[in-house]
Prior knowledge:
The chain is an alpha/beta fold. It contains 6 helices and 11 strands. The mean pLDDT is 91.
Amino acid sequence: MADFKMSADERKTILEAYKNLRVTDVCDGMDWVGLFDVGLVSANIRPLWRTKTVGIAKTVRYKPTMRRVPTMTPEEHLDYRKSWEGKIFSSYPFGDLIEDGDMVMIDQGGLNVAVMGSNNSFALMNKGMRGVVIDGGCRDTDEVILEKIPMWSRYIGCPRPPDRLEFSDMMNTINVGGVQVNPGDVVVADGDGVIVVPRAKALEVAKYARQEHVNDNITRKRLYKEAGLPEDDSLL
């Protein structure tokens, strides 16, 4: 696990700088600072429902297992599964690191295995997590949507991690949807997808993204007025 530190002031400043910004704004902001074609996560990683969020990346990686399932009776299965989750899968050790304003970024090599579901993601939301992006699968999606948990994933999958995935490491550089993600990077996600902004460029990108956002809203407010429509939250 890499050494990662971010002060409360830096966290607050970054989250405020990205408040209400869209993925499109941030993509344009990246262009302004010369980060062309950088940060956009694969379009195959999609939101479960139409929502938007921004957070500070906490990273975790899982890897395919080479262990084989032993022969067992159905009665032995539960103890075996608990042992796997506790010792091999490690039962979400990154949960202890979650702070208010975090985005959990999960690299599982694109495997269709459901690392997150309605129970564990809800528990992380209660700790202050802003959302989850998974290069893999999630499950219990009806409940995840009802619980209004911002979730982006490559698959909607049912298989559990035991016998399929092992914990590798956390708080190191990972790959999510073809994008390098480091702890502390800024993650913006909405209906258009997910974009990752390097921490070192976060405030510079936000400056130009805000400029794009404000200018776009000026035009859109005029169009709303011409159409006789009331302003909505998209104009904030």
